Amino acid sequence: MPRLSAAAALVVLIAAAFYMSIRSLERSPPVQPEYQGKPKKDSSSATLADSSTQPDPDFSGISRLEEKRSLIETAVRGFFQAASVNDKLAFARDVGRVRPLMQAYYTKKTLQTRTVAGLGSCVSIGEKGQRLGYIEALFTSGKPAKVIVEEGPDGRFRVDWESLVKYSEMEWADFLSRKPTSPTLFRVLVSRLPTTGSDRQVWLEISYPGNDKRLKAGLNPHDPAFQPLLEQLEMGDWKNVPLTLRLCYSEAKSNAESVLITGSEGKGWLILTDRRS
Q1: What is the layout of strands, in order, in the sheet containing 202-207?
Q2: Can you spell out the DSSP letters for 171-202?
Q3: Is the per-residue pLDDT at 117 higher than 70?
Q4: What is the mean pLDDT of residues 17-23?
Q5: What is the mean predicted confidence (pLDDT) over 141-167?
Q6: Is 59 in contact with 49 (CB distance < 8 Å)?
Q7: Measured over all CA atoms, what is the biggest interatomic distance in the chain, rounded to whole angstroms?
Q8: How far is Cα 65 from Cα 124, in angstroms, rounded to an integer?
Q9: Average pLDDT, integer, range 168-178
Q10: CB count, 10 Å around CB of 229?
Q11: CA distances for 233 relative to 105, 189, 202, angstroms
């Protein structure tokens, strides 16, 4: 009897742990995988979607994803092997909005093509009302790339270009040197800084991937405007959380290490679109 009781208790504990893991999957925001703070977040950033349990308008993710690998590969292959901006736009997500961004971006940077050898891991993202997935693109040479793809109403798949290139409205080095006072969009990594018990603000450390220079910004945790941002930070354990923020310097420019957060857009490095209607 004692052994049976112990076994039953173990089963209950395992079931409880499994339930908490599933709940974590359901509430995790879409982010760019290669810049997540902790390895465990790779498994809690997405959840497999089943079309039998995801009726409209509450669907989330790409149903029967494995059956659609060939369609996804076609889109990923076309995106990476495109030799011009127009060709790449044919496989890009939210083309109406990113067209001018991409055109301006490639006047300063060289558009490089890569030959896709196939797909690695493909995981559906459990974001309500969105048909999104994390896809690993494998190339004939060089390291794989993780991209976010979206399944459109027409059944075609398109790659999110902005999150892949970490699109920002200004080079990070230029932002640091010019110190603009107008809000500027950046895709950055954010962590919480230690604070004293008397501090009424939440202090954050902001960094740009590949750059050692860190900035800090303070937030009022009781300001309703910043609640979505704080929720994303909490879900990311407040460490190296990918965010899309609008930043600027104050008029006084008294402290070159501090900036203002004037707003956040999307979730992670992804600008969401409403597909529920």
Answers
A1: 214-219, 202-207, 184-192, 241-248, 260-264
A2: -HHHHHHH--SS-EEEEEEEEEPP--TT--SE
A3: yes
A4: 38
A5: 95
A6: yes
A7: 74
A8: 7
A9: 94
A10: 22
A11: 29, 10, 11
Q: For residues 221 and 236, what is the distance between their CA atoms, to the nearest angstrom? A: 16
Query: Average pLDDT of 148-170?
Result: 96
pLDDT at 24: 38
- In this prediction, residue 234 carries a pLDDT of 92
User: So what's the pLDDT on residue 59?
Assistant: 75
Residue where the block lists tokens 């892949």: 164
Which of these, 273, 246, 267, 264, lies nearest to 31 by C-alpha position? 267
The pair of structure tokens assigned to 165 is: 């290139």
Report the chain's terminal Cα–Cα distance, integer Å. Answer: 56
Numbered ranges of CATH 2.40.50 in the chain: 172-264
Reported in sequence order, the residue ranges of the chain that DSSP labels E, i.e. its strands, are 116-125, 132-139, 145-151, 157-159, 184-192, 202-207, 214-219, 241-248, 260-264
**Which CATH number is associated with domain 172-264?**
2.40.50
Angstrom distance (rounded) from CA 203 to CA 104: 34
